Amino acid sequence: MSGSHNSHSIYSASGAHRWMACPPSAHLEQQFPNETSVFAEEGTAAHDLAEHKLRKALKLRSRKPVSKFHSDEMDEYTDAYVEYCLSLIEQEKEQCKDIQVLIEQKLDFSDFVKDGFGTGDLVVVGDGTLHVVDFKYGKGVVVSAERNPQMMLYALGALSLFEMLYQIDRISMVIVQPRVDNFSTYEMSVDELLDWAEGELKPKALLASKGEGEFCAGDHCRFCRAKNQCRARAVKNLELLKYEFADPSLLSDDEIAEIIGVADELSKWASDIYTYASALAINEGRQWDGFKLVESRTRRKYSDEKAVAEAAKEAGYSDIFNESLISITEMEKLMGKKKFKEILGAFVDKPKGKLTLVSEADKRKAVDPVAAEFQVEG
Ligand code: SF4
């Protein structure tokens, strides 16, 4: 399921999609810390719970994990995963009496990728087909099992464990991602898998292990630890600037279509760089030429609506409700700015804005991040 199981190998199965597309990224990434996120921690908690439930359902020993992330939702989705696994196991038992079921099995694919291993959430093997199932708790990106390198690496690891014991012809790879109702299955023959391993995987893994090959930016960059400072990604995105000099003076339809095609990646890149630069400015006091930190704008709020209504009524204003108390702006219009301040000034709060990185030209006053505690905006 997750990278956490593969953290000791720099050529992890979970990162295979990236390092196969951009082999030198495996080495470049090592310069950056492997930061965990709340989503990754939640995924690990879901994974541990799912494993526990599956072991219990198969009458194996297991201790229930404890986590602050457990919720009814997590219960429901881990149940869906377990239900899927049990039905697969039942189905396989009907085909072959002597199946093997492995949960959280370390899968070693170092015959193809230096030091490569991963952990298979569920492996079911009998005569004929080897099944590899991966549970994903994330919901941000729908993951397909179709020629998915992570799954194919797991399959290679599982195959090397069992090929002497069973007659395996086909591989079935399943991604169970219940939060987005994704049960993605892909089947291939063992011959196809081995052709891919020799023809595509091995050469790319060799390049990755030497830190060689071409940098290649694309969708896969979003999971790369080098993504904020990577030059190849910047060059690819900045290619758009060539349109500044396009002649004639208006963009053609073809050019606009091309820009729309890259706009999504371009905006993700810009947002990554902005978040990275903001965090350094706020947390480490880094100065960026032409930019400063300011407090973001915030909306005024009534501190106590009951007290506001009473004070307004006492001052002779009764037309102060729509369905609820009218807004501060409406109240100010009703009373006039001066009176509003006199009557209700004590009941209006203006929350502190978060620090945000803006151009020097911005009218707001620059703020020294050391002087106060703020959080990164966004
Ligand atoms: S950000 Fe993209 S192009 Fe750069 S090293 Fe990572 S995967 Fe390769």
TrEMBL record:
Q: Which InterPro entries match?
A: DUF2800, PDDEXK-like_dom_sf
Highest taxon in the source lineage: Bacteria
Its protein name is DUF2800 domain-containing protein
Origin species, per record, is: Evansella alkalicola
